[in-house]
Amino acid sequence: MEEFKAYLLTKVKNNISSQYFNIMKHAVHEAFIRKLLREDLAKRVKSIKTVDTKREFLTKGEIESLIQTECWYDVLKQTFLFSCFTRSRWSDVNKLVWEEIRIINEVHYIAFT
Fold first, then answer.
1. What is the pLDDT of residues 71-80, one digit of tens each?
2. C-alpha angle 113/97/106, rounded to 5°?
3. How far does CA 38 lie from the centroid of its chain?
4. Global pTM?
5. What is the number of other CB atoms lying within 10 angstroms of the CB of residue 29?
6. β 101-104/107-110 pair status
7. Could you read off the pLDDT of 79-96 as tens digits, one per residue?
8. Which class for 83: exposed (0-12), middle (13-18), buried (19 or more C-beta within 10 A)?
9. Which branch of life, at top level (predicted)?
């Protein structure tokens, strides 16, 4: 498990490493609970500590400027602005389907897990 932790820290950013490593620790712990292991090896290894990250964001003025800016690919611009206004990540917008758009009392909602 220590080698896996070291490997993760060399391949991906710290907070992602922490998430992946905690998933593995949970799986090892679950194996112990199900009596697939004689010892809870997950207890021997400390988790990877997360670090605070500085999140960058666009100001209202910058978004307004982008709205006025020409773009060769209109669908790219519209998708980016949709992400800005819904606070959705690209990965969430990319997999969004029409069935996840809801209208309740004339207000549009995105309903997905």
1. 999 999 999 9
2. 85
3. 34
4. 0.52
5. 15
6. antiparallel
7. 999 999 988 888 888 889
8. middle
9. Bacteria
User: Could you state, in order of their start, the residue ranges of all structural domains in the chain?
Assistant: 2-44, 60-110
71 close to 77: Cβ distance less than 8 angstroms: yes
DSSP string covering the chain, please?
-HHHHHHHHHHS-HHHHHHHHHHHHHHHHHHHHTTSSSS-GGGGSPPPPP---PPP---HHHHHHHHHS--S-HHHHHHHHHHHHHT--HHHHHH--GGGEEEETTEEEE---
Name which of 36, 42, 44, 51 is nearest 22 in CA terms.
42
Q: Give the Å distances, CA to CA, from 108 to 81, 82, 98, 104.
A: 16, 13, 12, 7
For residues 90, 94, 97, 102, the Cα torsion angle rounded to the nearest 10 degrees is: 10
